[in-house]
Backbone:
């Protein structure tokens, strides 16, 4: 037990700072993918065929491509375009690009559950686009959207570990560092697991809270 | 063609849409041209970078990597489905002795990143003195994580089956286990099929994490091919080829799921709103039906 | 609709089969880029051995070695190696392995009575070396494995069979980096968590934000060529191999990192990683290495592999324990 605790205290400089980077990566990617995901949804259902085609192919490509490859292409292919991106922003962009495809699908399924008649009635009453969206469509869509959205962000939190293979000093790199310092591998992994359990708790609590508030009696 | 977000376009909106369409197409063409030009300038299309792919030795390596990926994904998918079903039934059990550990497992394995689970499965047995290769730790890690996620999907599906089904089953005198396995689970699987197959697609993509424990799967082989300095470090061509293989395979899987769902469930679920009554005189003729 | 779908499938299948049949036999050999006047010709990808023949010894028996018993019953030996270090542990595009570490491994195998053709190679990354040896996944490990006291708690070492130093790999036209003291403001790359990069970090040789880490050195070299990092740091033996493969683009600085307390370079002692408790095997391997160093085999292997990177080498004294 003593050795177990020592693994944490001796290496707090690595473990603490790396987890902090994970949290930063997660928050930036969460906001970014929400924005991009909403944009993609708007494109996918828009009446402009070109936008619809772009949105659909984007989601198709990125949903079927492993995240590791998206990272690899961003880190190795983008410099070949003579565009220079640093590693942390590159990791954020890769995560945002990948997760937004899933956010788009979740939003789209949410919007599809709102009956068209609701929107048509709202428009017939003279509401403009923003009013229809904020007063009628989104409140109803949210109820269906929340569980898949939280699980998408849950998955993204864990996907941040992939950034460790691409020069971002976050939680996934802890194992390689501490193995070089010859620490007991199992203890190291246990501490990383505990760290992620702690990080996941806010997400799960949020999900439970929202589900309870918006539970629909069927 | 109204939908929830956009109304039918009037004349001004039609013009706006047309302009937007043209601008989008021009933008996409410009982006693709930019990428191809820049790749050309930095020599990504030089023959030396693609030279390795012409040779059978490399092609065989790629094929072996691909088969390893498929084997790992297949094994993990089967195990995850079984594990998920057991966990879901456990979570819905009436006995707390089953419910508590099942809930604990699901929450635990959903919270821990797949990478860490794979490390546990790899380093754990070795610490205890058992020798394992890289294949089974990957499969075990994938099974634990995706099993937990599938358990939640199964549970949502079981809870979504119409209450009348289970009530009728109980009325006929069936016991809980029979109801669960004969009545509820099959219908749940049918309803949740898209979610289940999309999770299997995620599983297939996650086999790419095997490269961290040196499993010679597709991405690992791609990295090796790309890392050869004498060939100009062809990371970009190698990754593009590997990406094409992954996207095609996962795309085929997703399409298969879509086809399967259409055959089993018969298209979209029943609408909850009434179909519009046609305004012409021949109501009820071959055409609209009143739901 | 079904017919068109079936037709599409058939087309894709035949196309892929046709492409597969188009594969050329043999090893891809890259056209070596025309060397600049005065610069050495680039070394290609194809593996060439040093020409030393390894005839398996007969009647070998090591009393009290569980690892040897395992090797004998299996009839083959499993060796952990690296695959991306030119002239040290390298796998070329046709799958052949060559390099100094590989040939030392073959030497030991032949001394153990195993035909080098019967060796099973396992590629194990740096972070997993102790785990692979402890778990029995490999019988021994030969791959730029530095002997350190901390590692001796988990595994045992025979050797050292080579002593390297930490150095820097930079672009050929970069004259601003002349050693470990000129790294401030420059981006430095190495393998994730490896000792060289931890040394750079601990001694604050460059800013924390300029430290770049990837899983393999080839990725670091790729970033170096793309001008995204300014230097790659690890053992000079590894770096010289990369420079030899592309001398028109890369060069090794040639000024090893020195320990400020002793004034001497930090020694990276390469040893053969063996199971921790197997003293009998350790003594046997040490004896085999000693013989190879004295009868010229070591030198022949070195000149034919690492020596090609352009530096002379001498056999180091063994540290037996």
Residues:
């Amino acid at each position: 037990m003593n050795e177990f605790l020592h693994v944490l205290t001796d290496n707090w400089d690595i473990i603490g700072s790396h987890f902090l980077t994970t949290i930063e990566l997660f928050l930036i990617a969460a906001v970014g993918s929400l924005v991009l995901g909403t944009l993609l949804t708007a494109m996918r259902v828009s009446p402009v065929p070109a936008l619809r085609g772009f949105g659909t192919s984007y989601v198709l490509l990125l949903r079927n491509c492993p995240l590791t490859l998206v990272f690899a292409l961003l880190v190795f292919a983008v410099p070949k375009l003579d565009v220079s991106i640093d590693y942390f922003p590159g990791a954020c962009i890769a995560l945002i690009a990948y997760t937004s495809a899933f956010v788009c699908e979740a939003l789209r399924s949410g919007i599809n559950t709102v009956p068209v008649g609701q929107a048509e009635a709202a428009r017939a009453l003279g509401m403009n686009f923003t009013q229809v969206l904020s007063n009628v469509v989104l409140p109803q869509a949210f109820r269906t959207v929340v569980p898949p959205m939280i699980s998408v962000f849950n998955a993204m939190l864990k996907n941040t570990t992939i950034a460790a293979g691409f020069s971002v000093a976050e939680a996934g790199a802890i194992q390689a560092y501490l193995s070089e310092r010859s620490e007991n591998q199992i203890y190291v992994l246990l501490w990383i697991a505990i760290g992620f359990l702690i990080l996941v708790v806010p997400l799960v609590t949020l999900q439970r809270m929202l589900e309870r508030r918006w539970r629909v009696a069927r | 063609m109204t939908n929830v977000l956009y109304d039918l376009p009037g004349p001004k909106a039609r013009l706006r849409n047309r302009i937007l369409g043209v601008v989008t197409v021009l933008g996409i063409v410009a982006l693709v041209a930019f990428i191809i030009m820049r790749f050309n300038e930095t020599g990504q299309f030089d023959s030396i970078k693609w030279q390795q792919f012409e040779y059978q030795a490399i092609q065989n390596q790629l094929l072996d990597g691909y088969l390893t990926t498929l084997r790992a994904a297949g094994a993990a998918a089967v195990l995850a489905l079984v594990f998920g079903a057991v966990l879901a039934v456990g979570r819905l059990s009436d006995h707390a002795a089953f419910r508590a550990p099942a809930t604990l497992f699901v929450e635990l394995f959903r919270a821990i990143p797949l990478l860490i689970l794979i490390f546990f499965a790899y380093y754990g047995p070795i610490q205890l003195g058992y020798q394992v290769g890289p294949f089974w730790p990957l499969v075990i890690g994938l099974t634990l994580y995706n099993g937990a996620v599938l358990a939640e999907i199964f549970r949502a599906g079981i809870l979504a089956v119409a209450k009348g089904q289970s009530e009728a089953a109980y009325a006929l005198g069936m016991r809980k286990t029979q109801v669960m396995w004969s009545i509820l689970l099959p219908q749940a699987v049918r309803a949740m099929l898209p979610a289940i197959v999309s999770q299997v697609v995620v599983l297939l993509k996650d086999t790419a994490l095997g490269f961290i424990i040196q499993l010679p799967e597709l991405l690992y082989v791609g990295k090796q091919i790309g890392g050869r300095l004498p060939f100009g470090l062809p990371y970009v061509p190698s990754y593009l080829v590997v990406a094409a293989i992954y996207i095609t395979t996962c795309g085929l899987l997703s399409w298969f799921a879509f086809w399967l769902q259409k055959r089993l469930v018969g298209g979209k679920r029943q609408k909850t709103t009434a179909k519009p009554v046609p305004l012409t005189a021949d109501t009820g003729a071959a055409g609209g039906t009143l739901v | 609709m079904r017919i068109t779908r079936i037709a599409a499938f058939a087309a894709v299948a035949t196309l892929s089969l046709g492409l597969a049949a188009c594969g050329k036999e043999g090893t891809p050999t890259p056209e070596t880029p025309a060397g600049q006047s005065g610069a050495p010709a680039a070394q290609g990808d194809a593996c060439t051995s040093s020409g030393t023949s390894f005839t398996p010894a007969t009647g070998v028996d090591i009393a009290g070695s569980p690892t040897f018993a395992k090797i004998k019953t299996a009839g083959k030996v499993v060796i952990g190696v690296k695959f991306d270090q030119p002239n040290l542990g390298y796998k070329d595009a046709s799958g052949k392995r060559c390099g100094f570490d590989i040939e030392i491994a073959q030497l030991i195998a032949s001394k153990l009575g195993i035909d080098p053709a019967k060796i099973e190679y396992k590629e194990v990354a740096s972070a997993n070396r102790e785990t692979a040896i402890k778990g029995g996944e490999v019988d021994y490990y030969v791959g730029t494995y530095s002997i350190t006291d901390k590692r001796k708690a988990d595994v045992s070492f025979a050797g050292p069979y080579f002593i390297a130093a930490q150095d820097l790999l930079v672009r050929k036209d970069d004259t601003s980096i002349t050693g470990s003291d000129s790294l401030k403001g420059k981006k430095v790359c190495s393998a994730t968590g490896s000792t060289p990069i931890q040394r750079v970090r601990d001694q604050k040789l460059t800013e924390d934000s300029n430290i770049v880490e990837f899983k393999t050195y080839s990725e670091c070299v790729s970033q170096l060529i793309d001008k995204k990092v300014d230097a790659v740091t690890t053992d000079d033996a590894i770096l010289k191999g990369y420079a030899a493969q592309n001398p028109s683009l890369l060069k090794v600085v040639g000024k090893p990192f020195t320990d400020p307390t002793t004034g001497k370079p930090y020694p990276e002692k390469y040893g053969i990683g063996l199971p921790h408790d197997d003293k009998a095997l350790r003594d046997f391997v040490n004896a085999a290495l000693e013989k190879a160093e004295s009868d010229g085999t070591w030198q022949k292997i070195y000149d034919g592999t690492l020596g090609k990177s352009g530096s002379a080498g001498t056999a180091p004294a063994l540290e037996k324990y």
Q: What stands out?
A: The mean pLDDT of chain A is 85. The two ends of chain A are 50 Å apart (CA to CA).
